[in-house]
Each structure stands twice: as C-alpha cells, then as structure tokens.
Amino acid sequence: MSYFDVASSAPLHPVARQALRASLDEGWADPSRLYREGRRARMLLDAAREAAAEAVGCRADELVFTASGTAAVHAGVAGALAGRRRTGRHLIVSAVEHSAVLHAGQAHERDGGTVTEVGVGRGGAVDPDAYADALRPDTALACLQSANHEVGTVQPVAEVARACREAGVPLLVDAAQSLAWGPVEGDWSLIAGSAHKWGGPAGVGILAVRKGVRFAPQGPLDERESGRAPGFENIPGIVAAAAALRAVRAEAAGQAARLRELTDRIRTRVPELVPDVEVVGDPVRRLPHLVTFSCLYVDGESVLHGLDRAGFSVSSGSSCTSSTLTPSHVLRAMGVVSEGNVRVSLPLGTAEEEVERFLDVLPGVVRDVREKLGAPAGPTEGAAESVTVDAMGLTCPQPVIELGKAIGKVRVGGTVHVDADDEVAAVDIPAWCHTQGQEYVEAVARPGGGARYTVRRLV
Amino acid sequence: MSYFDVASSAPLHPVARQALRASLDEGWADPSRLYREGRRARMLLDAAREAAAEAVGCRADELVFTASGTAAVHAGVAGALAGRRRTGRHLIVSAVEHSAVLHAGQAHERDGGTVTEVGVGRGGAVDPDAYADALRPDTALACLQSANHEVGTVQPVAEVARACREAGVPLLVDAAQSLAWGPVEGDWSLIAGSAHKWGGPAGVGILAVRKGVRFAPQGPLDERESGRAPGFENIPGIVAAAAALRAVRAEAAGQAARLRELTDRIRTRVPELVPDVEVVGDPVRRLPHLVTFSCLYVDGESVLHGLDRAGFSVSSGSSCTSSTLTPSHVLRAMGVVSEGNVRVSLPLGTAEEEVERFLDVLPGVVRDVREKLGAPAGPTEGAAESVTVDAMGLTCPQPVIELGKAIGKVRVGGTVHVDADDEVAAVDIPAWCHTQGQEYVEAVARPGGGARYTVRRLV
C-alpha cells in the first residue's frame, strides 16, 4: 500500500506518537488548577506553545491552540472581522482558498458583510496587483492561503502582505498546507494551521494573531486560550502537535529536495505515459510533495477506485468523487480540466520505487476506465461541416467524451455543438478546448435548460 | 498523591489509552475518502458512534462528536435556538448550569434574545414546578444539567423534561458530570457531554439531537459530523472516548456504591472533625463520587495549597481561587457559604485509606489557615448592645472573620453591623448567619460604596 494523500491527512509522525504517549500520563489535568497535576499540565501546555510559536515565527502569547485547522480559520476570520467592524465589513479572499475560508466568508455575507473573491491564473496563483486592487477603505480583512491544497501552487503571500500592510488591512494566511515546510514569509497578521496536515494528531489547530491586530473573539465567552479557543485544552494532542512540527521542520530541507524530484518526475512522465492529460498547478512555485493532473474522458471516482485496487491512495477534485457533485472550486477558478482529476501528495520518506510503481500502474488504470466509457481513441480525419451532439442528461465525463468523438467527424474549421445540462460541462468543455488546441466559441443557454456549447476544430 | 478532582478532569482510563494507541495506526486518515485508509477510519468512526449512542441512549444518527463538551453545549444551544427562531427567542437555564451554558445564554442575550434563570433551593436543585412556570409561548429552548458540577446535586430532569414536552419546548441536558454513571433519564431532546470527564481523552465532546428536534447549525458551513461539528474528525480521540464510556459504564454500579460510601463518610465526618463547616449539596439525590463543603474563616486558596502540600488535589468554588475573583455562581445561587470551599470528587477505584488520610489531614490544614488569619476561636459571651465592624477594603474571608469575632462581643439579642465592600460578603454574610443560627437582618448600600450588613445575635 502506498498512501499518497498527505494533503488530506498525514499519518502520525513517530515523534508525535512518542510525545502523545508520554503526555497522556502528564497532561490530562486541568491546566488552570493550582495543584500538582494542574501545574504539570500547564507546564506541558506552555512548552508546547513556545515550540509551536517558534516554528510559526511569532511570540508565544500570540498563538493559541484550537480544536482543528477549520476552527482556527473560523475563529480567526470571525475575530478579525469583528475587531475591525468600525472600519467596514468587506472581506477579501482568493477564489482558491480552502472551503473553511470560503465558508467563513459565506457566513460573513449571510451576516450582512461583503466578500470579494480574487481570481487566479491558470497556474492557480493570485496576481499580487489584482489582489491589491481589491483592497478598499472598508476592507476589514484579507485572506490568502500560503499554498493551494489541491494543486500545490505557492501564493505570493509576501507581496500581498506588503500591499495589505500599506492599506492598513490585516492579512490572514491559511498555512495549513505549508507549515510543515517552513514559516510563512512576509508581514502577515494572522495565521491558521492544522496539526494533522504536518504529522501531528487530529484535533489540534493553531491560530496566531500578531500583537496590535484588532481581534474580538466571537461566540460565547470562554476563558481558555486567551478567550480565542473555547473548550478544555487537549494537552496530549497539543504536545504531540508541537513535537511533530519541530520534527518535520528538522527534516524539511532534505525531504523537500527528495520529494520535489519525485513530483517533478510525475509531472514529466504522466503526460508521456497517458494521452490527453493536463498537469495543473505552477510547475516551479509549488509545494515540493504535491502534484495534480487531470485525465480527459474518465471520471475521477473510477480512476481512484482503480488506483486503490492497485494499492495507491490518492485524492481527486473531480465532481464525481465529492458528495456535492460539483467540481472543485479550485480547478474551476483556474479554468483547467476537472474531470479525471488526480492529486498525489507524497508523505515524508516516500520511496522512489513507490513512485515508479505508481507510474507503471496509472496508464493501465486510465486506459481501462476510458475503454469502459467509450472514450475517443485518438485524432481522426473528419469531413462534416458541423455535428450536433445531444448530451442532455449525461454527466461528467460523458459530455466531453461525446465532444471528443464528434470533433473527429468534422473537418478542420468545422464546428461541433454540444447540448448539455451537466454543470461540469461549463468548466470542462472550455478546458478541453484549451488542452486540445481547439477553439471554444461560445455557450448559449438553451430554452429548456442547460446550454449549447460550440467548438471549432483547429487541429 | 491523591487526585480528588475528577469533576474537573479524569485521568485517562486504561481502556481509553489502549483504544487510543490502537486507533493512532488505523484512524488518522480522512473518513470521507474512498480509499483503504479512509474506509478504515470511517469504520472506526461509525463503530465509536454506535457505542457512544448506545451509552447515551439515542440512535447513532442522532449523535455527533464535537471538539469538547463546551463546543457541544455552544453548538447545541445555538443550533436549537436557531431551529426554533420562528417560535421565539426565549431561553431558560437553571442558575447553577456550567459556565459553558450560561455563556451561551449571554451570547444569546447579546444577540437580542432573552434568558430566564430558574433559581435553586439550598440543596442546589431546581423545583420542577418553578422550572415549568418559566416556560412561555415564545420559549425556544430550555437547558438543565443532569447533575451539578460543583456540589453534585442531581437535577429533576425527567420531571422538567415532561413539562417541556407538554409545552412543546425542547430540553437540552448538559450531562457532562453524570454520563459516566448512566444514561440521562426522561424525555430529553438534546444532550451534551465531555469525554475527559468520564476518563476519555480531552478534545472530544458529544452532542445528541433527537430526531424531530428542529436544529439549524450556526456558524460557517462544514460537511463533517452532519454539519453540526466543524473540523477534521479526531478519530483516535473519539474511539478512545467511546471505549472509555463503555468501560466506566460496565463498572458504574459497583463503583457508585463504593464511592457513595466514601463520600458519605466525608459528609458525616468533616463537620465532626472541623468546626464551622457547612456541607453543601443534596445529601441523597447526588452524584456518588462528589462532595462539597465550605469552611468558615478561611480562604479556599490557602486550604487548597495546604492540601496540595499534604498530597491532595481538590478544587474550590471560592472566589480566591478563580481568576475572576467572584465566588462560584453555583454556591451563590444556593445561598450557601462560598468561603473556604472545597470540592472533593473521587476517581474510580479510590482506596478507603486515601479518604481516611484526607480526613486525618484536613483538620490541621484548616486550623493552620484559621490561625494565620486570626479566625474567632469559638463562641464567647458578650455584653455589648451593638458593635460596628469596619471591613471596608478587606476581602474574603476577612469580613466574615471580623463578623465572627464581633458576634462574641454582643449579648444575645444584640446586633453587629459590618461595613464591607467585598462583593463576596453579600453571599457569605447571609450564609454565615444561616449556618451559625444567627439572624441576618439586612444589607443597606453605603453612600461611599459597599454596604452595611446587620446581623442579630440569636445564640
């Protein structure tokens, strides 16, 4: 078995396991009590806070432990917005933030606030100038992830932080995906993170708020963790989380170099081994361990099942694998193919042989799914001037498969019309055109629902 | 060392430790993923939910795991209030709820809702009829703890639940202190609990919401745990929590009988061994492992330090031991002495010898503090008609010490006036009169601040 999905959750680091076991005996009491067991728990908590703060790059009294990364994001966004309510109620997020940030933004909108989503380029990064343009006099808070969780693209946090600082707006950085690799650069105001992403246990997040940042915790009062994270402290988890963060940082440089070589290999070899694949995300400014690609004419779920049977655990941003049946908002914002999407995120210490075996297995898995779905075999010469495809009622990846087959029936310069009502088609048909070098002409709403998509054959 | 404060936090049960260790290997992955590690995590989570639901007495799909008992209370109160917003915005709580419930109520008030606090008798229990009288047509939610965390009094939950059911109002029961001992009786609608109180790990709470109860989760959307508990599931903690609950339940009947005998011994012997002590809480309808008493003429902090030096870890609801410097709202609502308050809550398996040693040590600890503070030695015969004591600027327990000394200077039928501005005097002077058999006449606000308390000597 090869587990290639640390971006979802990393196995517990051995150092974390050891720290957890030790602190189960020492850290179960209430750290606010004055007796021996309480003082011992308090000492563990204080030491963990010092260690975590050093790794994050802040003062110990600026950092609290939350119940999860999600809780850290929710508390951070709500507290920072409330702290600057007099300035205004405008929030800026990037379009590719983690759902925890986007959901916090939606809650803010339901509460009467306004949110601007800053778009990203095809590589998944925001443009710092475009981000700066979104800053307004009534902007209370800006959010930008340190690196994207689905495609690994590193965001220009330092540049955006500078623009925010000049505008007097605090910047909250969701650093969940990057804290294992190093501190966040630049002049950030708040940071949120999640221990189970760096090899710590589940149930621990961190929220750092720089001194001087106006912050008003929301929700019912609670005295613990400076009033910013309610509930009895999970000290064994916190101790293990801090220990894991130190441990992964100690090996980060070496692991980053090794894993970057392996993900580069995947980036290069997958398009050679599998036809009709788009590798997505910035090829250079990216996390070392994460690579994402989309395979045309397959559904992500079938590919994931095939890889699981072959012993590989990976993730997908395709609609078919999520409960909501909408494609990843990240891939959509980037304008890249969402169908047949595969995210590989390698754990520390991944062996070269595992990656080679993955590259051996992948082509057969994709081929099998394509055969089953009747995907187009390859480019053919067509003669028709125009072909219309009825893909109404068909779901991802069928509309694109039908388009792929139809394009082979028209001459170069001819057009294909696809009638489809699957929401994903609106993302995947333009993205297909981009990867295939064909011209995406337009989408026109159909009276009965769905849309007619028009594509012109160029090659 | 004897740790006598499980009502704050219990040491991890051996079964929980074992379950935690095992599930660290099996339960770190994302249970929403379809690959092997995710399916394994999901199975652990499902099994833990079944086990916890059985212990709570509900269906598995009615129970979610939260990040703490506090989180369960906050989410439960907010969700139930929002679910019945159309009915009204009135919330009922008892005056002796845990601060998590009271703080949720305060947040509701800040948000424009109204809260009724139902008082308690000297034993700490609400009167079911008085509670029922508080129900109104616009009551959205009622809250009542199963048993009090400071004095151990068991509340008449079944009776109150019946009244709520008749009025069509859901009842949320904070069962944090009692779940180790058995399911909550009666027709409750929501239950909140906290694993570290029953020997599970910190970082896990439970929230059960009966089918049919209108519930609208508040805060940002999150798909996990039926949308009721945001953040990545802490599966090893959850597995350990469920295992611990089953384990403590299996031994509950035997332990309850043993510990009840030991706490009965404390209830009987402490007043024999230490003069001027009030044992508080209901002597019969109470948790088996918990006993609370207040010692006149001492401050809780000094007694706790003395007991800690002698090897006993206990808790106190006295103002001097809390960061807020206000006495326990529970003791205040009961109208009992708050000074020199000591709560003993025995862990499972407490040895009889430990309790005997506690009874050996306690009188000396209290005597030493009293000597240091100059407490009144005992009843003396006085001759004066009236004595006025200036206790302005003095803090607990000094105003009561001065009163105790002054009462010895007046004749039976004579009066003592105490001028004091310590907030605690308003609680402790009437309570002192009650325990000493003296008449509390009145308190009159003084022009310069504080109050003049008048006491008549009866014995």
Automatic annotation (TrEMBL), chains A, B:
Residues 389-413 form the UPF0033 domain. The keyword Protein biosynthesis does not apply. It catalyses: (sulfur carrier)-H + L-cysteine = (sulfur carrier)-SH + L-alanine. This is Cysteine desulfurase/sulfurtransferase TusA family protein. The keyword Iron-sulfur applies. Its cofactor is pyridoxal 5'-phosphate. Coiled coil: none annotated. Keywords: Iron, Iron-sulfur, Metal-binding, Pyridoxal phosphate, Transferase. PROSITE patterns: UPF0033. SUPFAM superfamilies: PLP-dependent transferases (SSF53383), SirA-like (SSF64307). Belongs to the class-V pyridoxal-phosphate-dependent aminotransferase family. NifS/IscS subfamily. InterPro entries: Aminotrans_V_dom, Cysteine_dSase, PyrdxlP-dep_Trfase, PyrdxlP-dep_Trfase_major, PyrdxlP-dep_Trfase_small, TusA-like, TusA-like_sf. It holds the Pfam family Aminotran_5. The lineage of its organism: Bacteria, Bacillati, Actinomycetota, Actinomycetes, Kitasatosporales.
